Amino acid sequence: KLDAQPKDSSYCKATDVTAVVFETKVQLFKGGAALCSADLPDASSCAVSPDGSQVAVGTKSGKIFTFAVQAGGGALAKGGKALERHRGEVTAMAYSYDGASLASGDSNREVLVWDTSTQEVKKSRMVYHSSKITCLSWSPDNGTLCSGSVDSNVILWPMDLPTSKRTTLALAHKEGVRGVAFVGEKTAAPSGPTPSAKSGGGPPEKQSRLQAGRQEMHTDYKVFGGQN
């Protein structure tokens, strides 16, 4: 049983460890058992590095703190330097597959990409959503970042090109994008709440099918994979 309502969680396949963020702490779990925790006021989001050696935790103040995972998950050691650039609550984070980059998004609709070795911002000016960032995902080759927002849109950001070369997938989910993930090398799949019958007329079952159709229409990587 959890002590309180979780704010966010992140799973590491390599170590089978899940980081769970509560409002006042971050805690590690494995196989349903708690391993360790560290206090952190106003925690709001988290991400575990691909090798499980680091946990990044975002806060309501806009700061990001990193924790080194020690003793096989038995302890969390807080890093000395907070990552400070966001002007709003950090609402989503994701490490790239190679662990070299950490993407973060905030309530002020901004996305940043950090270099995990230097802890400096290496890509910015990614402020093209019109509302809070809800989710982030990297392509398997680490070359493209995908962001989703309350604004119902998904934006694809090529890391080797300026932000002007972004691709926006409008209305990926009518009632807001809650999650997004790359499925294979060339397909990104957004997810969101099933619309209610009140929001568009017709039964929820029918609207759910229409929503799924819209996803398939907008998420083929061929749209942004250099073929336009």
Written overview of the protein:
The protein is 8% helix and 45% strand. It contains two helices and 19 strands. It is globular. It has helices at 197-200, 204-218; strands at residues 8-12, 17-22, 25-30, 33-39, 43-48, 54-59, 63-70, 75-78, 83-84, 90-95, 101-106, 111-115, 120-126, 133-138, 144-149, 154-158, 167-169, 179-182, 188-191. By secondary structure, it is mainly β. Strands 5, 6, 7, 8 and 9 form a five-stranded antiparallel beta sheet that branches. It has a four-stranded antiparallel beta sheet with strand order 1-2-3-4, with no helix packed on it. A four-stranded antiparallel beta sheet has the order 10-11-12-13, with no helix packed on it.
Overall shape: globular
Main sheet specs: 5 strands, antiparallel
The number of helices is 2
Structural class: mainly beta
Residues in helices, as a percent range: under 10%
What is the beta-strand fraction? 35-45%
